[in-house]
C-alpha cells in the first residue's frame, strides 16, 4: 500500500475519533464569543472533520505528483470521502443542526453512486472522481464545517451561511450524481 492510500485509510480511521468526540459526554462546556456560544465538542469535532477532509487533497496531490495513482486508490478515496461526510451529516441531524431530508438526499446519492461504481468495477472499469464530484465533495465539507461551527463567524451578521452552504452542497450532490449516471449509462445497456 503506497503513501496516498495510507493517507486515505487514515482519513477513514479518523471517523471513529470524530464520533467519539461528538457523542461521548466529556463535559467540555462551551466557548462564548460575544453573543455566540459554541460547544467545545463541536469545535473539536469541526477541527477533526476539517483535518480529515484536507487529507483528501493531500493524498490526491501526492498520488498525481509521484505517479502513485492506483485502482485501489481510485476506489478507496471516494469511499473514504463518502464515509466521512455521511458520518458527519448523520451527526448533524442527531444534534438538530441539519434537516434530515437534505441529509437523506446527500447520502442516497452517495449510495447510488457507490452501487454504480461497483457495477463498473464488475465490468473491469474503475472510475476516478471527476471535477463535479470534487466540487460536490468540497461543497459538502464547507457546509458540514459551517454547521459544526454553528455558523461562526457569519452569525455575527445574521447571515445563514451554514444553510446556504448546505443548499449548495445538496444542489451539487444531485447534479454530480445525475452527471455520473448519465456518463455511465452504458453499464445498464450492457447488463440486459
UniProtKB/TrEMBL annotation:
It catalyses: a CDP-1,2-diacyl-sn-glycerol + sn-glycerol 3-phosphate = a 1,2-diacyl-sn-glycero-3-phospho-(1'-sn-glycero-3'-phosphate) + CMP + H(+). One of its GO terms (cellular component) is plasma membrane. It is a multi-pass membrane protein. Keywords: Cell membrane, Lipid biosynthesis, Lipid metabolism, Membrane, Phospholipid biosynthesis, Phospholipid metabolism, Transferase, Transmembrane, Transmembrane helix. PROSITE patterns: CDP_ALCOHOL_P_TRANSF. It comes from the Bacteria. The chain crosses the membrane at residues 12-31, 83-107, 137-158, 164-182. Its EC number is 2.7.8.5. One of its GO terms (biological process) is glycerophospholipid biosynthetic process. The keyword Nucleotide-binding does not apply. Gene3D superfamilies: 1.20.120.1760. It is an enzyme of class 2 (transferase). Pathway: Phospholipid metabolism; phosphatidylglycerol biosynthesis; phosphatidylglycerol from CDP-diacylglycerol: step 1/2; Lipid metabolism. The keyword Transmembrane applies. One of its GO terms (molecular function) is CDP-diacylglycerol-glycerol-3-phosphate 3-phosphatidyltransferase activity. This protein catalyzes the committed step to the synthesis of the acidic phospholipids. Belongs to the CDP-alcohol phosphatidyltransferase class-I family. This is CDP-diacylglycerol--glycerol-3-phosphate 3-phosphatidyltransferase. It comes from Fredinandcohnia quinoae.
Amino acid at each position: 500500500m503506497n503513501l496516498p492510500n495510507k493517507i486515505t485509510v487514515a482519513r477513514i480511521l479518523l471517523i471513529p475519533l470524530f464520533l467519539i468526540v461528538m457523542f461521548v459526554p466529556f463535559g467540555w462546556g462551551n466557548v462564548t464569543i460575544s453573543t455566540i456560544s459554541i460547544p467545545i465538542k463541536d469545535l473539536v469535532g469541526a477541527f477533526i472533520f476539517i483535518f480529515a477532509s484536507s487529507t483528501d487533497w493531500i493524498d490526491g496531490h501526492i498520488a498525481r505528483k509521484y505517479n502513485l495513482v492506483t485502482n485501489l486508490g481510485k476506489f478507496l478515496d471516494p469511499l473514504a470521502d463518502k464515509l466521512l461526510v455521511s458520518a458527519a451529516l448523520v451527526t448533524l441531524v442527531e444534534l438538530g443542526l441539519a434537516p434530515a431530508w437534505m441529509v437523506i438526499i446527500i447520502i442516497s446519492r452517495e449510495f447510488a453512486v457507490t452501487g454504480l461504481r461497483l457495477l463498473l468495477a464488475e465490468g473491469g472499469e474503475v472510475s476516478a472522481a471527476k471535477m463535479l464530484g470534487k466540487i460536490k465533495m468540497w461543497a459538502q465539507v464547507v457546509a458540514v464545517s459551517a454547521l459544526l461551527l454553528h455558523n461562526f463567524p457569519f452569525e455575527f451578521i445574521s447571515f445563514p451561511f451554514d444553510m446556504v452552504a448546505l443548499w449548495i452542497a445538496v444542489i451539487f450532490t444531485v447534479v454530480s450524481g445525475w452527471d455520473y449516471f448519465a456518463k455511465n449509462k452504458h453499464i445498464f445497456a450492457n447488463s440486459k
